[in-house]
Design brief:
The protein has 588 residues and is an alpha/beta fold. It is 52% helix and 10% strand.
């Protein structure tokens, strides 16, 4: 179904044309003065110069035509030439009834669905997720869900780091600790053990230990570099050990991402791109895109319009080794071959913008992507502590993500048990849902590109612009609806009627904004706009709730109308939080 603003615009266009003016002037927007009107049109102001006529005169003529419409209850021309509009109750009610009957709640699915790949997560194997991984996972998941909701084929890829020096460091350290393992015996001919020679906890201790040694011991680092080289060139024992590292790490990553309700469609790795590198490099050389510069193979990506220096994109180092650039370009080759995406969106720390500028330009210049394939970089800001510096533990270290989640779970459990007499087991499960809303909404309500303060006290509050406030609103609605049903009433028979008061109409108007808000959030890759919308909607509902005795209303038809309005409000709110990546409990 059409968005309500499109329907209103059609009326304004027709009115301008009927009054003898260009219909394109009939552009209607939400009012920036809701105390005066609900919608406004400033087309008469733009028309004044073209038609050499006072804008208030043009507005007056258009208003006369608009008064003939069944859409508006009030239409006024206001100096110097604004047109103020209020909707007719019957039109608004009819729209909401159609919205409620629509399984997509007024969302028009994409007529020509796109294939969109989203590269997010940014995890490395053998390393635990820490708070620095939060934003990529949370933002990327929301973008993926929103695109999918609008009908696009949206594919999320974690793109694990698994092929660099870190692998050589781990192999070297394991060899030092357990030199008699068969992985290090070049004469071993049997089957390698099925069970890994380390747990995830041991593996997460091995890497930082090895990394520290390599910084102090040149011979150790050289040994690790040699191990990396041998791994990448097919050493059977090292490959078997590498598979153990992957399996143990990915199982743990899936568990931790699962706790965040983040799910990837693809668990692709840097190593998956390696087979594409030789042909890609040969192609770049043969086509004249790449040239040697101080021993390295590079592609120039600077453009005449650049206002700052954009260095060449290095494809191979002077020793012939590949780099992140090489792997990312080969990954683009792989994605184009396997999925042929219309868009690839990278959700990465904004400090990597220059790097992705180089990679994108190189991919375009060398025709690794088609002309109409979009490559987008969504750079996110830093999650900081109250001191304005990157979020740390009390001891000053980088906090593990599972510890952050666990701490907020405990905080929410304490609040729930303090405020209510609750079953401890049920309270624990509820606390997990509310804590996740606090974390995700706290992050997503900020514009992605901006740094923000991770304030646990603020984010876990049940008041203000927070996830728990949104969930509390949903649970309040569910509670009212349950009591209505417990009284022997059916939710299937209720239908939204005309608004009985101002707060009810404001709630109805907020509900009509749903489709346009989701579409805008998708087009601008801006999940924070979904947060902004549902905060406005939750506030509109709570004003209505506090002014209206819903369940004690004696007029059964009026009560049923209000319950229908609550039902739609619940559905819209729950759809929105699903797009943000969390769910609401039945009770709080």
């Amino acid at each position: 179904m059409k968005q309500i603003l499109d329907l209103i615009n059609e009326e304004a266009v027709a009115a301008f044309e009927a009054a003898g003016y260009d219909g394109s002037l009939g552009k209607v927007t939400l009012s920036n003065r809701p105390d005066l009107c609900e919608y406004q049109c400033n087309g008469a102001m733009a028309a004044a110069k073209k038609y050499k006529k006072a804008p208030i005169m043009i507005a007056g003529e258009v208003v006369e035509k608009l008064k003939e419409s069944s859409v508006f209850a009030e239409v006024n021309a206001v100096n110097p030439g604004f047109i103020n509009l209020k909707l007719r109750q019957e039109f608004l009610t009819d729209y909401l009834q159609k919205m409620q009957a629509d399984e997509n709640l007024s969302i028009e699915k994409a007529v020509t669905p796109k294939t969109i790949m989203i590269d997010y997560g940014g995890a490395n194997v053998a390393k635990p997720l820490h708070v620095g991984h939060l934003r990529s996972a949370v933002i990327g998941e929301s973008i993926k869900r929103t695109g999918r909701f609008l009908g696009h084929n949206t594919i999320g890829d974690v793109h694990l780091g698994d092929w660099g020096l870190q692998m050589g460091l781990i192999i070297t350290e394991v060899k030092h600790r357990q030199p008699k393992l068969p992985y290090f015996d070049s004469s071993f001919e049997g089957e390698y053990p099925a069970e890994a020679p380390f747990t995830i906890s041991e593996l997460e201790e091995i890497y930082p230990c090895a990394s520290g040694k390599s910084k102090e011991d040149a011979a150790y680092k050289e040994e690790a570099m040699q191990a990396t080289y041998e791994l990448q060139n097919g050493n059977k024992g090292y490959l078997a050990l590498w598979h153990h590292i992957l399996n143990v790490s990915i199982a743990d990553l899936k568990k931790n991402y699962g706790n965040l309700q983040v799910e990837f469609d693809l668990w692709k790795k840097e190593s998956d791109a390696q087979p594409y590198i030789p042909d890609m490099v040969q192609y770049m050389k043969e086509e004249g895109y790449a040239h040697m510069d101080q021993g390295a193979l590079v592609v120039d990506v600077k453009e005449e319009t650049d206002t700052k220096e954009i260095p060449p994109c290095m494809i191979l180092k002077s020793d012939g080794a590949s780099l992140y650039n090489t792997t990312d370009l080969a990954t683009i080759v792989e994605r184009m071959k396997l999925f042929h995406p219309d868009e690839i969106i990278y959700v990465v720390d904004k400090r990597q913008e220059l790097y992705f500028t180089q990679v994108f330009r190189c991919a375009r210049k060398t025709k690794l992507v088609e002309e109409d394939t979009k490559l987008k970089f969504l750079g996110f800001g830093t999650m900081n502590g109250k001191d304005g510096k990157p979020f740390k533990t009390r001891e000053g270290g980088v906090m593990r993500l599972e510890n952050l989640i666990s701490g907020i779970n405990d905080e929410m459990y304490t609040k729930i048990m303090e405020n209510h007499e609750a079953d401890p087991k049920e309270a624990r499960e509820t606390a997990k849902l509310v804590a996740l809303s606090a974390i995700k909404y706290g992050d997503l309500s900020n514009q992605a590109s901006k740094d923000y303060i991770f304030d646990i006290d603020k984010f876990t509050s049940f008041e203000g612009d927070t996830g728990p406030y949104i969930l509390y609103t949903i649970v309040r609605i569910k509670s009212i609806m349950k009591k209505f049903q417990d009284g022997g009433n059916s939710l299937d028979q209720v239908q939204i009627g005309l608004a009985a008061g101002d707060s009810e109409k404001r709630l109805m108007l907020e509900l009509t904004r749903f489709g346009a808000s989701i579409q805008q959030a998708y087009e601008e890759i801006a999940p924070h706009k979904i947060c902004s919308y549902i905060y406005d909607l939750a506030n509109a509902f709570n004003r209505f709730y506090h002014e209206t005795k819903i369940l004690s209303e004696e007029n059964e038809a009026q009560k049923a109308s209000w319950i229908a309005l609550l039902k739609l409000t619940r559905d819209v709110l729950e759809t929105c939080i699903s797009l943000l990546g969390f769910t609401a409990p039945e009770r709080m």
